[in-house]
Amino acid sequence: xxxxxxxxxxxxxxxxxxxxxxxxxxxxxxxxxxxxxxxxxxxxxxxxxxxxxxxxxxxxxxxxxxxxxxxxxxxxxxxxxxxxxxxxxxxxxxxxxxxxxxxxxxxxxxxxxxxxxxxxxxxxxxxxxxxxxxxxxxxxxxxxxxxxxxxxxxxxxxxxxxxxxxxxxxxxxxxxxxxxxxxxxxxxxxxxxxxxxxxxxxxxxxxxxxxxxxxxxxxxxxxxxxxxxxxxxxxxxxxxxxxxxxxxxxxxxxxxxxxxxx
Amino acid sequence: xxxxxxxxxxxxxxxxxxxxxxxxxxxxxxxxxxxxxxxxxxxxxxxxxxxxxxxxxxxxxxxxxxxxxxxxxxxxxxxxxxxxxxxxxxxxxxxxxxxxxxxxxxxxxxxxxxxxxxxxxxxxxxxxxxxxxxxxxxxxxxxxxxxxxxxxxxxxxxxxxxxxxxxxxxxxxxxxxxxxxxxxxxxxxxxxxxxxxxxxxxxxxxxxxxxxxxxxxxxxxxxxxxxxxxxxxxxxxxxxxxxxxxxxxxxxxxxxxxxxxx
Lengths: 262, 262
Prior knowledge:
Chain A is mainly α. Helices cover 77% and strands 3% of the residues of chain A. A two-stranded antiparallel ribbon of chain A has the order 1-2. The mean pLDDT of chain A is 90. At the A-B interface, helix 2, helix 3 and helix 8 of A face helix 1 of B.
């Protein structure tokens, strides 16, 4: 992708948004690492996964930030491409690692039996990897037909993930407490809303948006979507775990006693 | 090893693969450090070793990434050698430290008696060090005969490691629970498949692969093999520990009580 010339404001908007993402990711990382001890043992794997997601994303935003800074030079009041390529692949590498973890943490927090959990995690992980891997050839292509074909292929596993989460997971959690049901519904809507942004961003070049605005909109949009889909989603997972503990009358303090007599 | 000129895509593929390895290693590091508390005390040493392996590897991938970036300059759309040498020795230094730990973590997770465990760890560690140390003189040689001789010498301790793990370890774990046996078998297969890649990569120059493609294939192949052999293998070790805990009816919460009465 050849970079456009950006105004001072355009360059800075992306620059500051990337820095906001770094702060949000590492801030959430610290929260998830520490806050897992507020939960009983069976809910901690979900928080561990949340912390991996935002830790890995924080690393990638650090790289994207540095790459963005190196890709432009301030010349006569505008930011011109410096010749150093801007490496957008960091996002795809990040998603390849974090998207399977995001679906896994939703399964993990439900603490289903191994027989239900195992196959569901396997299906979702494979679908997530296929979704990301088939999206990338389209993303790096400047040909709209190629973009369209890979975009379509990538939508199939996406639809499958939604089906598993809504239909199959719905059945497996039908007897959960009302508050848990409510939070679970909200979390799935958050996932749908944030993940739904990525295909829109992906389609932007097809929609004929002007190069400078498109680049800025894409970077800002991806950053906001990532913060909501990773940090926000992780906080929802934490809330679900707490609601489930409450419904069970469990507490960290009596975790020892409860499990010992189980 | 003199470096070839690489296309934009070739350079970036290695670049992104090295960054993926950094993210995978440090992500796994966080996981192993935190997740050891999900296990009873006797399985934690295995997770501690896993975290050392990926922590050390993450450091080395960071160095390799920087070395790769410094070794090339973007000139007229292609990546030409910059004159700064690419330091491949990082990989061997890494293996010298991590390979003995990898075999040790498999022994550690089995929680064998000290009488069985001690000599087995000693034999495997010595064999692993000899394997790496004798591979290196071949790796840095551009003479195919020298490569062949050192490659052969290095294969002897490799074969010995496989013998100890398959035959001797098989006897020591014959009475484990079926799920543990299954996971243990899978882990040994993962080890064989990933470790088996290194000699193939090593032989690539002998096979007369074109310089640019060989360099890219080698770096990408080593990175994938390392991610599977370190992170993936570590996750298998974690799964074995959990399966063993389940077979024993043990939980973290009653670990204290159980150990106190033991």
